[in-house]
Amino acid sequence: MVQPLLKYPDPTIRLISANVRFFNDELSQWITDMIDTMRENDLSALSAIMIGIQYNVIVMKEGDSYIPYINARLIKHSGMSTQTERSTYYPGISVDVDRFEYVTVIYEDENGNPHHRDLDAEMSRIFQQQLDYCFGSTFVDRVDKEMKQRINDHLEHGLVEGGGSCPIVFYRDYFKRGAKYLISFIALTFVLPFFVSSEVRRWVYTVDTYGLILIPLLLISYFLYAQYEAKIYKQCTSCQTGNIIGTTAILLFQYAIISLGVFFWIAPK
């Protein structure tokens, strides 16, 4: 029987799945329900917790077959790759996640017989994603702090009356990040006059000057592109003009400070 899939913010997803200690008709029915749900939703894999069953059961579609992995564990892994992942639990969200390329898995079948198996490429990634669910985790727990905050903002403000959603990544932020990196780099050069010769100091001054030329270009690009995104994503509270102007003003103030430092401190005497 097809079962409803958990959707955010259902807290059940955070429960740790128990190991299966019985291999009977009830387990068989769970697996049947999982397969029916996978077919109905065109899924390549499913963890039992995704339909509210708190047991360590994963079903993977392999060709025309559906293979149950019960009480699965990773015992060996190698390699690492980054790919975009999606989840039925977080509709409309896609995130780049690092995962092992090759894994060795031990598990039991629906009759309790032990097995081990090597998985690679896409099968390895799909299996790891489903295993995360068994241990109360999602791909949100595998991204850095900044991306996690973006996802949380999306979940808080993304679904609005009348439809539409806020993107997790705003392209304007690439310009902002570039400006911040350059400002930080130039600020770090302020300690160099204590340790370097006059010749090196002149070279540092030249590099800092080029940086000071590039920063305003990045800030202008940030401001203009942010205005463009604000018009597209009017429903997103994080996109509004006030935030854009405030961020630009802060960066301009920082830019003014480091400019003074470059011309009055780094400049050759």
Describe the structure using short key phrases.
6 helices, alpha+beta, 269 residues, 7 strands
Report on the structure:
With 269 residues, the chain is of the alpha+beta class. Helix content is 45%, strand content 20%. The strands form two sheets. Strands 1-2-3-6-7 form a five-stranded antiparallel β-sheet. It has a two-stranded antiparallel ribbon with strand order 4-5. Helix 4 (172-188) packs antiparallel against helix 5. The protein is elongated and about 85 Å long. The termini are far apart. Residues 159-164 have low confidence and may be disordered.
- Counting helices, strands and paired strands, the structural category is alpha+beta
How far is the N terminus from the C terminus? 81 Å
The poorly predicted ranges are 159-164
Tally of helical segments? 6
- The amount of beta strand, in percent, is 15-25%
Mean pLDDT: 87
What order do the SSEs take from the amino end to the carboxyl end, as H and E? HEEEEEEEHHHHH
